[in-house]
Write a structure and sequence with these properties.
Alpha-Beta Plaits, disordered N terminus, homodimer, alpha+beta, globular, eight-stranded mixed β-sheet
Chain lengths: 201, 201
């Protein structure tokens, strides 16, 4: 996978500002227990396939699939001025694609699903992480953990942005709701905004 | 990576009993903020390199590195009678290797670190998960989530086993401590045992 071995990468690791995206199908594990294994994999791969296409079309870097969760970043290995903007557009496109995914699920006798998406911007250490036998381009830092905590809060159909992402945007998306979040290892509360999936500018 | 594309794999996904291992360096993110990015990557790759060697030597399948966290399984793609036993031996060997890792860290002016390890046994759906553009051999199911919750509880130097793993072992490791754990999405409490890293049989 070329994304895992980008050219021109600092082997030693460097500090970069990135916009991190984490998403998760709500209740997927519980849902998966009512289905045959092959149905679960069909449903998961349909979803991950469409999400992969959308993330790559928005020049995001997919770091991991962890079960039904997706971890992606915008801004590494290549930084662009509109990293946060592209991340939000990507999240809106992902939510918009759920209708088509669910229509295909229902046509196959599978349940409709809903995904929650969290975005957060911050400085992380990016580098080739692992061993000689197995390494990948990966990320370390509190902003990763913060994103994961925001993602825990996101309901199906929602897009939650940290204030750090929100302040980077050139387009002002209407905010439906603002919450404050205590995150382990971080003293200050994290401010999180919810934007409407239907308000794509 | 051959581990991600094992031969003879059911493409559709199947239900398998596996012993899941998750480990994490305690406080690594906070520690990493006091170091230069290159030092963080050096320290992380030294640790992940040794852990990879130990896990592969015990015929574990590494699913992911997520920052400093490792997710591995014993029992897929190939099931063996001693999957749980090998997982515990592997965890003991991982904790034993920390002394050497920390001696090398200290020699390089880097801090000593401690890892927590969780083991849990259960039935998961295993399959090639992802898209045509990017897929990997991955796992879905409540036992994955339960392992993650047990891992959250494990302190540096500790090995915590769920009762489901403990009951599979042919060697009776002395238990130092037993706790009960409430896990989201699971009705029953999960019983967790701590075994001593120094009591390798």
């Amino acid at each position: 996978d070329i994304l895992e071995r980008p050219e021109g990468l600092e082997l030693g690791g460097d500090l970069r500002e990135v916009t991190i995206m984490m998403s998760d199908i709500r209740g997927f594990t519980t849902l998966s227990e009512r289905l045959a294994p092959a149905q679960v994999v069909t449903m998961l791969n349909r979803y991950l396939g469409k999400m992969t296409d959308i993330i790559l079309a928005h020049q995001g870097t997919i770091d991991e699939f962890i079960g039904d969760a997706i971890l992606a970043v915008f801004g590494a290995p290549q930084k662009r001025d509109d990293d946060a903007d592209r991340a939000v557009k990507c999240a809106l496109a992902m939510q918009a694609a759920m209708e088509e995914i669910n229509a295909e699920n229902v046509a196959d006798g599978l349940p409709a699903v809903a995904t929650g998406i969290a975005l957060n911007t911050g400085k992380v250490i990016a580098g080739n992480i692992g061993s000689e036998r197995r390494s990948k381009y990966g990320f370390v830092g509190h902003p990763m953990n913060v994103t994961s905590r925001i993602e825990d809060l996101s309901a199906g159909g929602e897009i939650l942005l940290s204030d750090s992402t929100f302040r980077k945007l050139s387009h002002r998306y209407p905010v439906c709701d603002t919450r404050e979040l205590k995150v382990k290892g971080i003293d200050e509360l994290v401010t999180v905004h919810r934007i409407e999936a239907a308000t794509d500018g």
